[in-house]
Amino acid sequence: MTQFSLMHQRRFLPFFLTQFLGAFNDNVYKNALVVLMTFQAARYTELSAGVLVNLAAGLFILPFFLFSATAGQLADKFEKSHLMRLIKLAEIVIMALAATAFALESLPLMLTTLFLMGAQSSLFGPVKYAILPQHLAETELVGGNALVESGTFIAILIGTIAGGVMIALPGGTVWVSVAVLVLAVAGYFASRGIPLAPAADAGLRMNWNPLTQTWRTIGFTRSNRTVFLSVLGISWFWFYGALFLSQFPGYAKDVLGGDEYAVTLLLAMFSVGIGAGSLLCEKLSGKHVEIGLVPFGSIGLSLFALDLWWASPAAGAMGEGLAIGAVLSQAIAWRVLFDLLMIGLFGGFFIVPLYALIQSRSAPSHRSRIIAGNNILNALFMVVAAGLGAGLLAAGVSIAQLFLMTAILNGFVALYIYTLVPEFLLRFIVWVLVHTVYRLQVTGDEQIPEDGPAVIVANHVSFVDALVIMAASRRPIRFVMDHHIFRWPILSFVFRTSRAIPIAPAKEDPAMMEKAFDTVAEALAAGELVGLFPEGRITDTGEMKPFRPGIKRIIERSPVPVVPMALRGLWGSTFSRKDGPALRKPLRRGLFNRIALVVGAPVAPDALRVDALQNTVAALRGDQK
């Protein structure tokens, strides 16, 4: 099954349509209002169009600071599908107010409606992301988030275009009024199909003070270090995206020399890129939360932003007021569009795994409040981006130079986050390994327990066996490894970061061996997965060596299930010992070697026999070394 199969299921499709129509509606009204204020401000006020547009942006984002903390509490306290329907009913009322504002030609009422739309969106955000883990399996989270993110950006794109086109028609305010009301009603009817999602914490006592609850919500977000840094990563992406998007009008006009249609084209390429990158995440991640894609995404965000700076002509060099055909007739415009497409693509790789990670690792009892904290920080970062962009441009920095500064800053931010949480880089190294040197096929990974302790055992063929198994597992695994392997530069980083357990033979260092067994027992008592290669060494013949009794000693001390696995196809690869030491002939089989991991049914601790376990692993391996 692919992620698109979710679009045929009631547990996802009504929710997807609800959030898609909401995002579409927001942007129809918002852009219609921006266009109206830009070209007809004099009809309503003496304020300049530029001041009005910035005021509108501020009014839409202000509710995320005021109401997100309350929204997180509501989403944790009440059943989510009912809450969504109430929020969509509120949207109908707000859009009726918008239609009234257009009919009365009342600018204050139009801006009030925009503020209320922001409030409605801030209430919808926490429940939108918190409901997914209740209706989707862990293996579906990446695909579900990918569809939501791609759908959201496509909705933003077509909503922005539709709002601009309709308001420019004769009687444009009537067209927009009818459209937003129809979309709001359609969104409500879509929400009626969302299945029940029980309250996570029905006994929660509400705190209605936005200041104290906002601080408390940020505290919830910070309770899990990896989750909090993921939230910061998402917020950074919105900073990055807001800085780029806010420059599109000026870039299209001054750098590309185009008209208003060129602005839409830039937005379209960026949005399509994010949609495509989001949808590719499931295929690249193997259907589990693969945070190794996050560093990959950050690399692309910097590289293509650098190229965008490099490709950008000087302001005014391409002319001015050019039709879209004239802009596209110049080769440099295609390079710019490609860069924007790739920035969006790598942006999808960056944010989808982070959203899935937050959902999967947050405690269900306050998941919505953590997502509310994410929304607060997202809004804060976007406000800072707007202020920074305006300040730098006012100081004489060109738009292309702003892109360059963003690319460099993105690199430093990424390195900072990955230094604080090396797990991101660890998973990136593992992900690169199984997508360049190898092509990994996994069978039976559902046999790995979703929670609780277990011992993973497998045949030992190469120096990267543990990395291949880590790539296939939805859960972290602490491998018991020969202490000599910790001296290898890259492998040392990988195994230390994954908290591998070093071990030495009794005749070499008995104290280290005993400490290793103690650490294994502690890890299993804590509910972790421990990985072991019972042969005790990498094969130099391609055949399995006899299993040592260490596995029996571990299970006697900690009676937990044993999950047998077999690696296939690694014998003869770069990291195996075929024909001599490993790495003697780098890439001797080229790239993209097909390998496989086969997982067998767990063996109960009271049924464990070392010889039978070896026979099981051998049978799983078959004739493929």
From TrEMBL:
Any GO CC annotation of this UniProt entry: plasma membrane
Name of the featured protein: MFS transporter
Main location: membrane
InterPro entries, per database record: MFS, MFS_trans_sf, Plipid/glycerol_acylTrfase
Coiled coil location: none
Source organism (scientific name): Denitromonas halophila
Ranges that cross the membrane: 49-74, 86-104, 144-167, 173-190, 226-249, 261-281, 293-312, 332-358, 370-393
Subcellular location: Cell membrane
Membrane topology annotation: Multi-pass membrane protein
Domain Phospholipid/glycerol acyltransferase: 454-570
Listed CDD domains: LPLAT_AGPAT-like, MFS_MefA_like
One Pfam entry name: MFS_1
Keywords, sorted A to Z: Cell membrane, Membrane, Transmembrane, Transmembrane helix, Transport
